[in-house]
């Protein structure tokens, strides 16, 4: 099951060694340990652009992982892969699933907003003004939630909200 590290990055190797040590000493079940190994291997494959392999590992981790918090990060990472592959509908599904398990994931909220903003730009380019406004408003809603959770992040989104008049002062 352990993935061979193709990357000679010192930090990646150090993380792997530390994670293996922690995994051995933590009082967790065999399934939880296996789930973590799959998750770690998925992250490694994802960082190397091996998305199919990463997805396989994440899906295996989802089968074994029971903790909702940990599952939320697995689902979030699956969403990242689908988003980077341009499969925005699937990405949105996984981001929303991750938020159902962990509502305090500002990065998932941000990524949802980015997708809606992109869809708003596409609609604007096609002169679909009503649809464009709808998508931009949805993007604003999710960015406001992300900024509320992480007020020092997403500066470009904050500027966009201000310049488009979509700012909601509840997060400032």
Automatic annotation (TrEMBL):
TPR repeats lie at residues 35-68, 35-68, 72-105, 72-105, 120-153. Keywords: Membrane, Photosynthesis, Plastid, Repeat, Thylakoid, TPR repeat. PROSITE patterns: TPR, TPR_REGION. It is found in: Cellular thylakoid membrane; Plastid. GO terms for cellular component: plastid; thylakoid membrane. Belongs to the Ycf3 family. Seems to be required for the assembly of the photosystem I complex. This is Photosystem I assembly protein Ycf3.
């Amino acid at each position: 099951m352990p993935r061979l590290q193709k990357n000679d990055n010192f930090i990646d190797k150090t993380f792997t060694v530390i994670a293996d040590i922690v995994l051995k000493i933590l009082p967790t079940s065999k399934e939880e340990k296996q789930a973590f190994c799959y998750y770690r291997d998925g992250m490694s494959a994802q960082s190397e652009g091996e998305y199919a392999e990463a997805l396989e590992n994440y899906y295996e981790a989802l089968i074994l992982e029971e903790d909702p918090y940990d599952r939320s990060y697995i689902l979030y990472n699956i969403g990242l892969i689908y988003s980077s592959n341009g499969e925005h509908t699937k990405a949105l599904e996984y981001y929303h699933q991750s938020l159902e398990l962990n509502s305090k994931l500002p990065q998932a909220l941000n990524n949802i907003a980015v997708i809606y903003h992109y869809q708003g730009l596409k609609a604007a380019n096609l002169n679909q003004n009503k649809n464009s406004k709808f998508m931009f408003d949805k993007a604003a809603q999710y960015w406001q939630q992300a900024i509320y959770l992480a007020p020092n992040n997403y500066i470009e989104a904050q500027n966009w909200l201000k310049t488009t008049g979509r700012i909601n002062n509840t997060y400032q």
